[in-house]
């Protein structure tokens, strides 16, 4: 396993629970910061429940009961729906804690999570080209590589190394340039509203003077963390992954000074540095399986293009990767074993391909400022439209049954070609 973020740690947990010998090589040391919004929707809570990690409030997990959307002169609350497949709440927890807990959870199942190991590349069988391991170097406390390169061999390797996708890139797997890509920045501020149990999203991010310039495709967020602070950030979407040329720090600065005055933050006193990163979406790196190697999470571009959420999908991919690897172990001959591993890529497309194809259309549409304007001004206050849109954006619809919105969504995602 390369990387012990949510994808790597969940896979390490699942595989160790299945009795596999798992080594997860993680370049950093926990607890460590990760640039993120720290927000978990009901979909992510479901994945955390599935690995059996407890989430009590007294240990810092703060629940949220829905999404408050602000934009176009509206401020409306959309509670998470009561559904069979998902809990009716989300959570927030800073990634420094979340990722540490996930790694410890993987260890508790028997995985050997090694911190301070930087993986330098994949090792391939010279004859067949199959991935049979990785090379890695130990790092010191400052992250500097030390010592000799060490080779780790494994019958199956998972690359869960995040957006840098070093392993995949080293194998020549470039990102697809017809997929949306996000860019987001975030930091933390003290706020008296730190323990509010709602996620807040602001849909009006302007590229100049508010009200007189263009609306950008993206949103700002405030995710209270219950510890005196909130994670506050802003992201934009580029429909084909091309650089937008936007100065996200300047956009962020303008928004926190003018757009969120009711949170009583001091815009000049963030409690951490403003940091940003790219967000790889809609399966922008494929295939998700090449002989011997599975891509899980951001390394395979698995972030939801509708909302920028990636933790749930990295953990879902970890679950699916484990199913495939169990199939490989239980297969009775080599052909069936290889087919079981290859089934992972197909399963991910079955799970999310149609939905992500819709997401690509969405990214295209919202990149037109007029569309954003009409949606925020006229769409937000329409309960029928918003029932559907809320489920669509948060990806919490029932795949089978449910109400009319669930049925419509599940039909649309089935019709949309998975690519
Ligand atoms: C600003 C921002 C806000 C976001 N907000 C949210 C949000 O609120 N909710 C949400 O669900 N998603 C959010 N996302 C997306 C989310 O952060 C990612 O989708 C998620 O972290 C993906 O998990 P992962 O395990 O695939 O990768 P990562 O979390 O990136 O984990 C990869 C791990 O691999 C390690 N690694 C990398 N290279 C190597 C190497 N060569 N050797 C060894 N180890 C290596 C890294 O140190 C890291 O620990 C946000 C992203 C950004 C940029």
Automatic annotation (TrEMBL):
Residue stretches making up the FAD-binding domain: 2-320
- InterPro entries from the UniProt entry: FAD-bd, FAD/NAD-bd_sf, Geranylgeranyl_Rdtase_fam, Geranylgeranyl_reductase
Domain of life of the organism in this record? Answer: Bacteria
Q: Which residues form a coiled coil?
A: none
**NCBIfam families assigned to the protein according to its UniProt record, in alphabetical order:** GG-red-SF
- The protein depicted here goes by the name Drug:proton antiporter
List the top taxonomic levels of the source: Bacteria, Bacillati, Actinomycetota, Actinomycetes, Micrococcales
